[in-house]
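pinned: reference chain
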Amino acid sequence: MSRKIPWDALWVGDELYWERRDEIVRFEGVIDERCVRVRSSKGIEVVLKVELRPIAKLDGDSGIPGTTKDYEIKPQRGSKGNKPPIDTVLDLHPEALAEKLKRPPSKLKLHDALEVARDFIQEANERGKRYLRIIHGKGDGKLRAALIQMFERDFDQVIERIEHLPDGGSIVLWLRG
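pinned: its structure tokens
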């Protein structure tokens, strides 16, 4: 029996069971009403939603009802040395933000992006996510500066470390565990 997955409630990195391959995969994002991107043992792949089932974490605290079969989850590829894989990602580019807030990009303001980022960090902390990536884009630097100011002002007790990536368009946050 297949259970309905609440696609809008999933975070990047949440685990799903891919029936056709008998494999646990990590959610990467929704493409359209039929397909999603997942990270499998073969890398990033596009999968039909109907082929995926939710799974519950062993502690039962995933918020998504699912199977109880015990699976071994391998770490995501790309994690090097002591750097853990990113748990989840927030994209603050105008197009992504407009889609999230259901408003045209021309109507968005700086405080809209800060509000979405604030909610994102709070929810990630509540869900036990520890390594977050926020994509702010390169632009003129105003959003990046405002984000860093907000992190230092509002999340001093939550954020352990802020890492600026060399691409210049994103920040990695390490939350306290």
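why pinned: The first strand starts at residue 15 and ends at 18. Residues 57-82 have pLDDT under 50 and may be disordered.
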